Amino acid sequence: MITTEINQETDIQTSREENPFATSLTSDSVVLVIGRWMPIHNGHKAFLIQLAKSCGKLIVGIGSCYENGTSRNCIPAVEREKMLRAIFKKEAIPEEAYDIVCIPDFSTFGEWLAVVKQLCVLKGVTHFCSGNKEDILDELEKIGEDFPYEIINPETNSKISYHATSIRLLIYRGDYERLEKMIPTEVKPILFKNTFKEIIASSRKRGIKIIPGRQTVDIIFLVRNLADGKLYVLLGKRSMKKVDFPGFLGLPGGGIDLFETPTAAALREFQEETGLTFQMIDNSLEPAIVKCSDIPNSTLEQMHFIGIYSSEDETMAGTRGGSSQCFGIFVEEDLEKYEDFLNPTDDLTDVKFYEVHDAIAKGLAYQHGEMLEKAITMFDASPKLVKPITSESLKENSETLVISFVGASGSGKSTAALGATYMMKKKGASVEYVPEFAKDLFYNGLLGKYIPNQSYIISEQYKRIYDLLGQVDFIVTDAGMEISAFHASYESKEVENLAWYLRNKTKQVTIFIERDEEKVPFETKGRTESEAESRLFGIKLEEYMRNNHVSFFKVKGSDEAVDKALFVASGHLSDKLK
Q1: What is the CATH number of domain 215-385?
Q2: Do 181 and 33 contact (CB within 8 A), yes or no?
Q3: Which fold has domain 391-572?
Q4: Tell me: domain 21-203, CATH 3.40.50.150, correct?
Q5: pLDDT at 262 > cutoff 90
Q6: DSSP code, position 106
Q7: N or C: which end of the chain has fewer CB within 10 A?
Q8: Of 229, 172, 221, nearest to 196 (Cα)?
Q9: Which one-letter DSSP state was computed for residue 321?
Q10: For 201-251, how does the pLDDT look when each residue is reduced to its tens digit (9 = 90+)?
Q11: 218: which residues sit within 8 A by CB, 6+ positions away?
């Protein structure tokens, strides 16, 4: 793997004579310097500022831009860009004097060099700056590459010679006194806000990794509408031609172009898919400062980096792999001001503001639901969004909501259903638990008799729910009708359609539980499947539900399932809870 760190020495070294490396530069020079900047330290700052003041244009490449989650690659490119901008701002280097670009890693030096050459031509580069002797300078010499750019090595006689690896080691060792002397003051707010935790988590092999594949951005735009006090999120419907999540609601977003920074991609994609334009005012901070240029006399707003989302599970990440870097903007304003400027492209249709609870209940593409919930927490929107369940407010709601837990055998459906029912009753909710009819048959030794006749099981299960509709505000069941439809699909299309017909006659939220195998052993009593068979059933059931465009929440373990049920219940009542 070709990486692009300025150097890789691990020990903090003593000072050497300063190198006047910029003597050949003029106001017409365009210099490309590539580093990993994990993180920016005083040595980086010294030669970057000297370069910027000695040439006409400085192009700063963020190398290893899609590497994250390891001890060596532990800071997202989003935060490294902010650190770079912070040092330039501190030294009054105007933004037009430099560009920041992202450069991915490649499996061979030849591939990496081809992309760097492409960048050099694109930017009109005259000088190439690198101190990475082992990975870059030696390789250029080894292959006899005709590299038509003058090479500057900032390591030659450099006055400050400690390196990013040394900074990370001091963080691991907890040596703040030495660390503080090596970090530019203007970088500290970024480093200490989020990056500390990321560096430490990565050193313990708990960092969030960027999975190879299509690298994308997603943007959460939340508006608390002053007219009604509700929280709305801007979403659109994905085309039915999409390979992944066709027809699902999703956040505005898309792919990151070559050399593009994630932040620039987020603003570009948001404008393309919604018509709304946010102008970047200051990206040397976290959160960044932005302004909606469409709205007359608009206020300054904050653009937060929500985080990196990736998964090797195709049902969550799609079939093309990759990761998403998510951003969020939260404003308190009249919704109409933004609605007037919505002008979506063909990529995302039916773009509009959805009340947050409705959006979550409908189910979103990819990991957009997780992103949205994290953003709500970050923006402290939840106190007004989620309100306690009270018996008084429940009496005003005549429509019964069915909360169905589904999943493989042994996943914790019954535990979650009973737990959710108990917790909701404690809060004064009118709620009843509906057990699984098929389990009754099993304990009575009759399941084998009726398995070939799924229509009987489906009808009896639905009857238990039907008898309670309108009598209570919530029905909690560990036998969602989706499971019945899945079983019936092996019998006949008519019976399968019956299950879906009955399921869709109720207002329902479905919660798919994946067993937490690290915490919960597989229970064999009352089961007809082995653990391996149960695991396979869960995979097939989830795939079946997605193929039938079922909106559902996916959680791990019964504890998360209970929490999700309570969250959904509060959302169901948000119109009544004032």
Answers
A1: 3.90.79.10
A2: no
A3: Rossmann fold (3.40.50)
A4: no
A5: yes
A6: B
A7: C
A8: 172
A9: B
A10: 776 777 777 888 889 999 999 999 888 888 999 999 988 888 888 888 999
A11: 251, 252, 253, 266, 309, 324, 325, 326, 327, 366, 368, 371
